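Sample entry (195 residues):
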Amino acid sequence: MRNGRIGGGLVIGGWALVVLGMAASWVVGSTIGNAIVMLALAVVGAGAAILAAAGPAPLQGRVVRIGLAFLAVGLIAVACSAVAAARLTYDALEDAPTVVLLLGGGLATAIGMLLTQVSLVRAGGLARKLGGMFFLGLAGIYLLQVIASVAQDVAPVKMVAIVLSVVAAAAFAIGCAAPGLLAALGARGVPAATR
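Predicted structure, serialized as tokens:
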């Protein structure tokens, strides 16, 4: 139970740091913001690894734990690729190990996130609601970006699309943090992701 809460706290805190890093990129510059985001991804990866190993209620299902393990490996690989790229004095795309870490980590992250979120949606209850927020947020961000690009000359439509994009991004972020939230809540009234 304690490991689940630690892992859950790391996942929640890591995703909060991702949001903070993105905001810092807009306010103080991309160098500091990117460093915060890469650190945050490593924190989320560590939390996901703990959750995958501990399998706290309601995350004790095999598929959700496999998804969390993929997510952990992928996020840590992406963070390592950023560290490797930062030490280079030439273009990081010319360094094969850095590119392999980035592409492999991105693929593992996508697989892990999808496995985890689908498992949560199938679990029902609060897990389904949080997993559903991930998919709704993702779809909302995509659709609203399409609307904003099509109606870029119409100021009111663009403004509404921006506001709704922020709402969709918030739902997406909450959905990303769902495993951490569920682990922090523990088994109290939350159906298990047992598949």
